[in-house]
Amino acid sequence: MIAVAKPYFNDEEVNAVQDVIRSGWVTQGPKVQEFEEKFAQYVGSKYAVAVSNCTTALHLSLIVAGVSLGDEVICPSMSFIATANAIKYVGATPVFCDVGEDYNIDPDKAEKLITKKTKAILIVHQIGMPADIDRFTELGTKYNIKIIEDAACAAGSSYKNKKIGSHSSLVCFSFHPRKVISTGEGGMITTSNKEYSERLKRLRQHGMSVNDRERHNSKNVIIEEYNELGFNFRMTDIQAAIGIKQLEKLDYIVEERRKIAKRYHEALGKIDSIVVPLEQKSMYSNYQSYSIYLKMGTGLNRNEVMKKMLDAGISTRRGIMTAHRETVYKGLNNSDLSNTDRLSDNSIILPLYVPMDPNDIEYVIDTIQKIIKSA
Ligand SMILES: *Cc1c(COP(=O)(O)O)cnc(C)c1O
Hints:
Aspartate Aminotransferase, domain 2, 2 domains, seven-stranded mixed sheet, binds pyridoxal-5'-phosphate
């Protein structure tokens, strides 16, 4: 069976975890700080704040951006459900915006959804393909609203020659095993804003005014204070130690993923009934997922194609989900989401991981070619 995704680990991660356990300091401590510093340096942001996962990263980012009860936040429906859920956690309402052919929210359509209640736009770099950040930054300036990036899938991607994580004041990453690098569970917020960084660090540990490491290293007795409601959204040093090793491999992993994507483009891009995910100018994708779109009216049924691939020993996944059709988001007054529905219902995510046996890559391609021919 060919898997759809696999994390890329070796003995380095295993040894790093052993070292942390032997050190006796297992929760948020020196390894988390090291991971934050290295991650900030890698993406080119001033600060990075590690948290328990990307969902909590989004939740805290919305809080520091000032989003609260009664506000509206524009976001795509076509995203993993955590994007919309985070907006609900702070009492705000997600306003779903349709996507373009690149699966990212359409800035022209987003502008039309802005109201007096709009506090922020939460853009998603879907499956690693950067959204047009500059267009959203312009909207943010024009209407005085915050831009937050859900970069859960986009570690190692770039926009206009700069790494994702360096553009906006709040960018959220995930290290779930389904993403390009993993710490088991884990998240990171990058920011260029010192106040945001300091507040995020307090909010992730119960709103505590000092962290454990400061207290541990202090020559004086420190009595901490709690000045606002916080959370326990900490990353552990065990996870951070894995993250440091994963970060060292990130560029290599992205290069290898791009080689596989290129081979898929070459072979599948020739098939008339399929649209392959190509980068627009100034976008550089990590190809966290490789999603093909089956054109409508060509006699191809998405679920049948997936079943035939499964029968041939190849795992695939449906295209990116939509939140507005799930029960938890029923009843919202949605704008036209026809691209969202069409792209979600007719796309398939193909196997792509490092290292992937070249024979398996060719087998995936051959199998798709055969299925299309017999359709
Ligand atoms: C995976 C994902 C998340 C959630 O990340 P976790 O680290 O699992 O919380 C959020 N948004 C998008 C777009 C994702 O793909």
